[in-house]
Design brief:
This protein has helices spanning 4-16, 31-35, 38-42, 76-85, 116-119, 137-141, 173-187, 200-205, 210-220, 237-245, 269-272, 275-282, 298-302, 312-317, 338-348, 359-367; strands at residues 19-20, 23-24, 60-63, 89-96, 102-104, 192-197, 231-234, 252-257, 287-290, 321-322, 353-356. It is α/β, with parallel strands linked by helices and 370 residues long. The chain has a single domain, classed as Phosphatidylinositol (PI) phosphodiesterase (TIM Barrel). The longest helix has 15 residues, at 173-187. It is globular. The two termini are 29 Å apart. Residues 59-366 form the GP-PDE domain. Belongs to the glycerophosphoryl diester phosphodiesterase family.
Length: 370
């Protein structure tokens, strides 16, 4: 049986080390998590840390970048489809334009999800990247949004939306919030929002306070505040503290946890997952959003057992909500079923929910959850 460390090495080679012309392409976060233990789940090995009370505990489903497994991510069309499937929350990643308007994009760069290289070929910076911050909203409206591609222009997920004629566009955070608010009002539903402040340090260097803009927009649509139907998330722990202390935000805040090598911020994510780190995070955040690859115990897996990573005890001890990312139906490891993946999150990790590109299988699993 492979060990977790070998799976991590393989994962880094296949996923996060794909760099073309300085463009780091994130393909999938799921296979490395469970590839190493697929044989364990398909055998009769017992699941450790199973909580029998989990069946009665709510399991939150978050539409990752809208219904991004079916339509181009973060478009209004993807948000509308997500809403129709009734998740608990719809996620919006937020970056700020040249004219200080918050738009919904996963990256501060444009070339992986738009045709910016064709429309504005000379508007890249010295590193060859096209930054949303360098374009006005009107200019961004001239772009077409397409499925995420790698450095060579091939789709990251080859079997997702393949249409050529629909004219998907970048939308503002205001438009996304208005859409969800109006659908909630008319349909008497309560789908929440889950915005992420992208690269706050980058935006501050550009002279703009991305977190304040996001909070102001949440408040404008009734999504902000202590009892609101929303979470605000960020990979930068300094910014999480700033959201609480400087901006005085009272709503729910989530500390996202990645790998130090990803360059999301200068936060030490190894420290975040320590007992000291979790205690500190709990002083400012209501929950955490860990990467799936951090959730299982390496040593136990080497012995043929599936157990939650030890650091999760610190999160549970502090009462932190745990929303891991990202379940993708088209990135399951060989031999694994959707149910096995989701049961692991529920019964082994004792997670409170999950971010997913593919709402249909997750909502279906939840409806028959045992």
């Amino acid at each position: 049986m492979n060990t977790w460390s070998s799976a991590t090495v393989q994962y880094k080679k296949l996923v996060f080390s794909n760099s073309v012309k300085g463009k780091t392409i994130q393909k999938s976060l799921l296979p490395a998590l469970l590839l190493v233990c697929s044989s364990i789940f398909t055998s009769s090995a017992p699941l450790a840390n199973t909580d029998e009370a989990n069946a009665t505990k709510p399991f939150t489903v978050i539409a990752h970048r809208g219904a991004s497994g079916y339509l181009p991510e973060h478009t209004l069309e993807a948000a509308t489809l997500a809403f129709s499937l009734r998740p608990d929350f719809i996620e919006q990643d937020v970056v700020i334009t040249k004219d200080d308007i918050p738009v919904v994009l996963h990256d501060i760069h444009l070339e992986t999800v738009t045709d910016v290289e064709d429309v504005f070929p000379a508007r890249h910076r010295a590193d060859g990247r096209y930054y949303a911050r360098d374009f006005t909203l009107a200019e961004l409206r001239a772009l077409r949004v397409h499925e995420r591609t790698g450095g060579n222009g091939t789709p990251v997920f080859k079997d997702r939306y393949q249409g050529k004629y629909a004219n998907f566009k970048i939308a503002t955070l205001t438009e996304h919030f208005e859409l969800i608010s109006e659908l909630n009002r008319q349909l008497e539903t309560a789908v929440g929002v889950y915005p992420e402040v992208k690269s706050p340090a980058f935006h501050r260097d550009e002279g703009v306070d991305a977190s304040k803009i996001v909070i102001d927009t949440l408040n404008a649509f009734g999504f902000g505040g202590e009892n609101s139907n929303s979470y605000i998330q960020c990979f930068d722990f300094k910014e999480v503290k700033r959201i609480r202390e400087t901006l005085g935000y009272k709503g729910k805040v989530v500390m996202l946890i990645g790998e130090n090598s990803w360059g999301e911020s200068d936060t030490d994510y190894d420290w975040v997952r320590s007992e000291e780190g979790m205690n500190e995070v709990a002083s400012y955040a209501d929950g955490i959003g860990p990467w799936l690859g951090h959730l299982l115990n390496n040593k136990a897996m080497a012995q043929g057992k599936v157990e939650a990573a030890k650091w999760l005890e610190f999160a549970h001890k502090n009462g932190l909500t745990i929303h891991p990312y990202t379940y993708r139906k088209d990135a399951l490891p060989d031999g694994m079923t959707s149910e096995q993946v989701l049961d692991m999150l529920d019964k082994v990790v004792n997670a409170d929910g999950v971010f997913t590109d593919h709402l249909v299988p997750v909502l279906s699993w939840r409806s028959t959850r045992k």
